[in-house]
Amino acid sequence: MLLRGLIVLLGAVYCYAQSGPKEYALQCQKDYNIPDDVFKKIQWNLKATDEQNVNQRCFIECMLKAEGTIKNGELDQDFVVEEAKKDLVQVNLTLDEPKFRRSVATCAAQDGQGQCTRSNNIWKCLADLLSGGLPLVS
């Protein structure tokens, strides 16, 4: 089951990368002066290349807000769960929702000092969670 979840995740990342960045991603890139090479690395690695760089952290926050992942400074846990469920339905898989919700709640509790650090920490937690594969119902 874990392998299938990982395959779904990798497929989603590949499709995103192939379709190119969304308009809001390009706007966030411009707003925070993210060079093209760094933008591509963040896109592929799903993490800031330099977490000490406030522009990279705020770029990630900008993206999360634009996608609807963060609302009013908080992780929209329902949004994250619903997006995961939608992606899995497309490939006839079912999310183990209670297990996933517990993990997402852990990410929502992330904290941090400094501008955009909390959003960056939430994103790192989500990226780590997703890279481990989504929990699926057998």
- The count of DSSP E runs of length 2 or more, i.e. the number of strands, is 2
The percent of residues in helical segments reads: 55-70%
- What's the CATH C level? Mainly Alpha
Strand order of the largest sheet: 1-2
- Span of the ends, CA to CA: 7 Å
Global Rg:
15 Å
Give the overall pLDDT as a whole number. 86
**Helix count from the secondary structure assignment:** 7
**Mind telling me which CATH architecture this is?**
Orthogonal Bundle
Low-confidence stretches: 1-10
CATH superfamily: Pheromone/general odorant binding protein domain
Structural class: mainly alpha
Order of helices and strands: HHHHEEHHH
What's the shape? globular
Give a structural overview.
Helix content is 66%, strand content 3%. The chain has seven helices and two strands. It has a two-stranded antiparallel ribbon. It is globular, with a radius of gyration of 15 Å. Pfam families: PBP_GOBP. This is Chemosensory protein. GO terms for molecular function: odorant binding.
